[in-house]
Design goal:
Blueprint (H helix, E strand, L loop, with lengths): L11 H7 L2 E7 L6 H11 L8 H6 L6 H12 L5 H17 L2 E8 L1 H5 L5 H19 L2 E9 L4 H11 L8 E5 L11 H9 L3 E6 L5 H9 L5 E4 L7 H9 L4 E3 L1 H6 L11 H6 L4 E3 L4 H4 L3 H11 L5 H14 L4 H20 L2
Bound molecules: hypoxanthine and zinc ion (ZN).
């Protein structure tokens, strides 16, 4: 264990906010705030099934993953033009930078847009231009991960990969999201094998609502390098040992788990168990506009709900986020150094 300077307990909230961190599980369509949904609907002449921002907000009372996805896909219907994708991504990156995110690996769902007649080029151009401008103007680094929707067929995923071929230099990897139960990783074995051949990184949502068997499948069949969510792993001791031994990161999203009723309450979340078992767990926001908080809200509310979490855990979570990222080793070392300096400054002050 790394020896850290002692941090007084009352400084923990300020430390959590100030920590440099990477965000590795953020669906960019899930960063669309209700106000922006209405502004884009107006700009693009799209009719929404909600009369006002307040009415839309009131619909954010989810009972499970599917009840959220239905509203999330409706929200994304306002995105039509390159500028829409640009504005959404710039807004997220500006907000993330305020939370001291130094690096973000951003998921996007092409099939949600191509099914409505939006060209993949429009999507990728807007997202990529926003990432480049945010890096130049705010110093935040960002890269893109294309997610396949698992409720659709493997053929549809292959067609999406084909459309993405001209843009692979702007994508670092692929992921798997949407409705988990009934859509195990094995359904996408061949398309993920092709993605690996193409040199793309591969990650997958598994063990959010689905059983530990879906995490085994993501590892053994898809060869996922990271597991998104993965919180159901605590139900399988052999899986916990494997994740720890192979240092397979989990991108955990506590507020998402709370809002989608994966845990009855944040105070019952498994994050501390995952860390104590030596897993490379990280904290992320998933769909911050829908789940009531960006990454620092996830840190602060989870540490408040789980008093067993310590400053050492905070350091570990931030350090894990750099280790788990697909960034260059030189960047990881620089961010790690900033993390250690942040700890020193919080220990010394006062
Ligand atoms: O939490 C999630 N799970 C699965 N698919 C998703 N798409 C956006 N957010 C999620
Ligand atoms: Zn997710």
């Amino acid at each position: 264990m790394v020896k850290l300077p002692p941090i007084p307990q009352e400084r923990l909230p300020a430390l959590l906010a100030a920590l440099p961190k990477a965000e590795l599980h953020i669906h960019i369509e899930g960063s669309l705030e209700p106000e922006m949904i209405f502004a884009l609907a107006r700009r693009n002449g799209v009719a929404l099934p909600y009369a006002s921002v307040q009415e839309l907000h009131r619909a954010y009372a989810f009972t499970d993953l599917q009840s959220f996805l239905d509203i999330y896909y409706a929200g994304a219907s306002v995105l039509l033009h390159e500028q829409d994708f640009y504005d959404m991504t710039r807004a997220y990156l500006a907000r993330a930078a305020m939370d001291n995110v130094v690096h973000a690996e951003i998921f996007f769902d092409p099939q949600t847009h191509t099914a409505r007649g939006v060209a993949l080029e429009t999507v990728v151009d807007g997202l990529h231009r926003a990432c480049a401008d945010a890096r130049a103007e705010q110093g935040i680094s960002a890269s893109l991960i294309l997610c396949f929707l698992r409720h659709l067929s493997e053929d549809d995923a292959f067609a999406t990969l084909e459309q993405a071929m001209p843009f692979l230099d702007r994508i670092i990897g692929v992921g798997l999201d949407s409705s988990e139960l009934g859509h195990p990783p094995e359904k996408f074995a061949r398309v993920f094998a092709r993605c690996r051949q193409l040199g793309l990184h591969v990650v997958a949502h598994a063990g959010e609502e689905g059983p530990p068997a879906y995490i085994w499948g993501a590892l053994d069949v898809l060869k996922a390098e990271r597991i998104d969510h993965g919180v159901q792993a605590v139900r399988d001791p052999a899986l916990m040992r494997r994740l720890a031994n192979e240092r397979i990161p989990l991108t955990v999203c506590p507020l998402s788990n709370q809002k989608l009723c994966v845990f009855p309450d944040l105070s019952r979340h498994s994050l501390k168990q995952l860390l104590d078992a030596g897993l490379v767990a990280t904290v992320n926001s998933d769909d911050p506009a829908y789940f009531g908080g960006y990454i620092n809200d996830n840190f602060s509310q989870t540490f408040a709900a789980l008093p067993a979490l310590t400053a050492q855990d905070a350091w570990q979570l931030a350090s894990n986020s750099f280790e788990a990222s697909f960034a260059a080793e030189s960047d990881k070392r620089a961010w790690q150094q900033r993390l250690d300096e942040c700890f020193e400054s919080h220990a010394e002050r006062g």
